[in-house]
Amino acid sequence: MSVGGGEDPSGRRLPVRVMILSDAIPNRNGVGTYYHDLMEHLQENLEHVEMIPARANCIFKKKRVSIPLPGDNSQHLYLPNVLRILQQVRLERPNVLIAPTLGPFALLARILARRRNLPLIFGYHTSLNKLAGLYWQGHFGRVTSWYLKRASRVMFRHADAVVVNTDAMEAEARELGAERVWIMGTTIARPLMERPEVPYGGGVQSVLYAGRLAKEKNVTAVAKAAEDLPGMKFTFAGEGPLRQELTRRTLALANVELTGWLSRGELLDRIDRADVVVLPSEHESFGSIALEAMARGRLMLVSENCGILRWPELVKGLCVIREGETVAEALRRLRALPESERRAVACAAREATRSMNRKTMEGWLDLLESLRGGA
After folding, report:
1. What is the pLDDT of residues 59-71, one digit of tens each?
2. Percent of the chain at pLDDT above 90?
3. Contact 213, 236 (CB under 8 A)
4. Of 22, 78, 249, 256, which residue is most buried, by most CB within 10 angstroms?
């Protein structure tokens, strides 16, 4: 099932109380960012919506009892403080629960939904098939992949709706047993929409990579472009398992800056200062940073592996790294275009994101209304 139609969601009010039990940390990765932004938008349309984020609601908070993710020690699963969360559930009386991704908080959401007879929405935003091949090899890899797929099946079996970003993720979810699947777009953070526009300068001089410094993001391809294009400025914003490798590789390059993790406001500043934002991922279920860059009227250069390309209304505002083309070659190709053509793409990108935001909100409101039986 796809997102809702073109009706404007502004002014639509539902007597729905939503609680999001999130294993993803708000604004630290794509899933965390997605639901943080969604929550901010839903506040205008629902009776109540709140997020129970993992790191702020785990047991033994000072020690932050957690489990590193296999293949990526920069991300952790946190063990929920069940008593504290139960108190919040009793206080806020949610009538819909959302579990954005796999993890202990998602398991708690499933248990709460069954015991309290509440509708449960499960988010399936990361392809286990693709990640298994990148991070987990050998016997351990097979065991890890088997466990994650089995855990997904358990969540699918008990979820009243499964939310995905693209038709490809819908097909994968259905293969794993999901029956009630909704394809949803991505909302745009309010600050990105409300902040005064900083016009695109029309050039291709300043390049930004923003996201996790991880294998599936193909971030080393951007480092290679920085080596090949010494006359252009490259900024890497983010943290992840490839941080040390990236630091070593770019240490001698005068045209590279590594900022580390940035707050949302700082990242917005960096987007506004860039000409091009690049996302050359080997696998990307959607690519939230692409939508954010487009919303700010910047050129967005993505690989053919990014799920955002599966949304036809967004394609006209995207630049694509062609098959067999390096990041440096793609940037040279953009630089060779007439400035008027680059400006037209940036303008189309900005307009397309507004439409995506409206349709996504309508889709979420349709889903929540259906789960509450039209209440």
Report:
1. 654 445 444 454 5
2. 66
3. yes
4. 22
